[in-house]
Amino acid sequence: MKLLCLLISLALLSAATGCARKSVMQANSDPFGEAAKSDQVMQHPGELARNLNWLVANSPFVYVGRVTEQVSTQDNHGLIVTRNDFAVDSVIVGDASKKSVTLTTLGGSVGDVAMKASHMPQFSRDTTYLIFTDLARTVYNPITGNENGVFVIADGGVYSFSGITIAGIVDGVIQFDEASTRRTDPQRMAATADDPKVTGSITSVQRAEVVQQRALTLDEFSLAIRAAVRR
Fold this sequence. Notes:
single chain; 7-stranded antiparallel β-sheet; 11 strands; 3 helices; mainly beta; two-stranded antiparallel sheet
């Protein structure tokens, strides 16, 4: 399949295109003007996105769910977007009555054209996610902190979108155990990967001690998120 890749730097809010076809699709930079006003959520993921308090402050809705349907289309700017429909398993922050959520993200495939936005997650149907979002942000980037606002839940443990074990929370900062990861394929978590053992507990409202080869449980991470809301 002919492939057209668009790499978009969310830090600079600029678009760059790469082409494996004779024709090149130029992205209109205007659509990012509105999204750029959304209080830092478009910036390049970095240390700020590791701060649980920042993620919570910019996320009126935090939930656990699974993709039930995905549809990719081209918008009127020529950009490919994907509508991801989720079944909500549980709501951690926000309207607890919601049973379904739709997040429209930049990137996807339409016919022989594929587009990928850097730092924007591509979701899989066979994975359970915990997602920080603001449902009012409907233009290209509804996820707080981009892929850093998406966590994978596997056997009750919490992992980053790229598969790194979430080892704890220290002074409100999410701690990653770089030596402990789940296997991944090039784009998303492998649902059948082997997991580290899940142990440990939240020791205070803002602190979960880091222990090597451990992953926070979903209940522990949820507790920390709710505690951050109350601060």
